[in-house]
Write a structure and sequence with these properties.
Keywords: Membrane, Transmembrane, Transmembrane helix. This is WSCD family member AGAP003962. InterPro entries: P-loop_NTPase, Sialate-O-sulfotransferase. By secondary structure, the protein is of the alpha/beta class. The protein has one domain: P-loop containing nucleotide triphosphate hydrolases (Rossmann fold), CATH 3.40.50. Helix content is 51%, strand content 7%. It is globular and about 80 Å long. About 13% of the residues have low confidence. The structure holds 2-acetamido-2-deoxy-beta-D-glucopyranose (3 copies). The site of one 2-acetamido-2-deoxy-beta-D-glucopyranose has 6 residues, from helix 8.
Length: 302
């Protein structure tokens, strides 16, 4: 009887401590939020500094609390009259949100999506869920005939599979700008991450090859890595492909604000999450997709 009581009160005490702990953590991160936004700096700085230890363990929680408002170069409009529907096709984790952000900044037009991501809709992408020619481009991660049939042109955004898969892993546990805690890679003795890599890699290959080989409309392929290293040039090629006039002032403003709020800062893990076996799988599929890209882009060179 006495033991039961002690156990009961111990549980209650632990619960109270747990709640207090959560409250303290929340207060700390809210405080941190205000601190880093007031300076008007990008979201990046805080990942390098003191908040690091608080990023673990509360998946997706803080990134939502902390997201600042986007500073648009101009008010966003719909395309009127609507043009052809253009797909922004990419495997998840390949930087499509960042590209949408850049396009909206540089052109002043909304971008849409075949999804209804509530967070994105509330934070800079009010045309989320619109998938016709009244938006500049329509985000899609889908493939197959039904996914392709409504589009007359496509921008295919390709990122190396290792980076895309890791970004998607981060997104699934940390939100659009958060991170997966390092111990998530070790879940189920690493099986969880292993299975994730294998199934995502299959998707990465299918998605990219399907758009490359089966989509019949004009297709513009860009690499995420190029968008990072040469943002200005790559963004310009995308806008030219979409075929709308470039407003010099807006374009410059977009480049000045290219950081945006949706880029996940690089965070180096203390270990390499990809085993040798995974790396050779990744390389093999990557080469398949690159072959398809170069054979389509330069058929004469074959
Ligand atoms: C595009 O989609 C939106 C939302 O579904 C709809 O309100 C609008 O009328 C559509 N525009 C065209 C041109 O189809
Ligand atoms: C394609 O467009 C038609 C007509 O707007 C719509 O009914 C259909 O659901 C769309 N298909 C897909 C796969 O989005
Ligand atoms: C292209 O489409 C065909 C028929 O729908 C399909 O069987 C094939 O898997 C597709 N190719 C790729 C690379 O997805």
């Amino acid at each position: 009887m006495l033991f039961k009581r002690i156990r009961f009160w111990t549980v209650i005490l632990l619960l109270i401590l747990y709640v207090i702990g959560i409250l303290i953590l929340t207060a700390v991160s809210l405080h941190d939020t205000r601190g880093s936004y007031k300076s008007g700096s990008s979201i990046h700085s805080r990942y390098n500094s003191k908040s690091r230890s608080f990023d673990y363990g509360l998946p997706g929680f803080k990134s939502r609390l902390r997201r600042p408002k986007v500073n648009w170069c101009t008010d966003l409009k719909y395309i009127n009259p609507p043009g052809p529907a253009i797909a922004l096709a990419s495997f998840p984790g390949s930087g499509n949100t960042w590209l949408r952000y850049l396009l909206q900044q540089a052109t002043g037009f909304h971008t849409g999506s075949v999804y209804k991501d509530y967070g994105l809709r509330k934070n800079g992408f009010p045309a989320e869920s619109i998938s016709n020619g009244s938006v500049l481009v329509v985000k899609t991660h889908e493939w197959g005939p039904r996914a392709r049939c409504n589009f007359s042109k496509a921008i295919l955004l390709v990122r190396t599979p290792a980076a895309a898969i890791q970004a998607e892993f981060n997104r699934q546990s940390g939100g659009h700008i958060g991170f997966a805690a390092p111990d998530r890679y070790k879940r189920l003795r690493g099986r969880y991450w292993q299975d994730f890599v294998v199934s995502q890699l299959r998707g990465w290959q299918n998605m990219n090859l399907d758009w490359l080989l089966n989509f019949t409309g004009p297709t513009h392929v860009i690499f995420y890595e190029q968008l990072v290293s040469n943002t200005e040039h790559t963004l310009r090629t995308v806008i030219e492909f979409i075929d709308i006039p470039v407003d010099k002032k807006l374009f410059k403003c977009a480049i000045d604000r290219k950081q945006g709020i949706y880029r996940r800062q690089k965070r180096v893990l203390s270990f390499d999450p990809f085993s040798d076996n995974m790396k050779s799988m990744l390389k093999e599929k990557e080469i398949k997709v690159l072959d398809a890209i170069y054979n389509i882009a330069a058929p004469a060179a074959r």
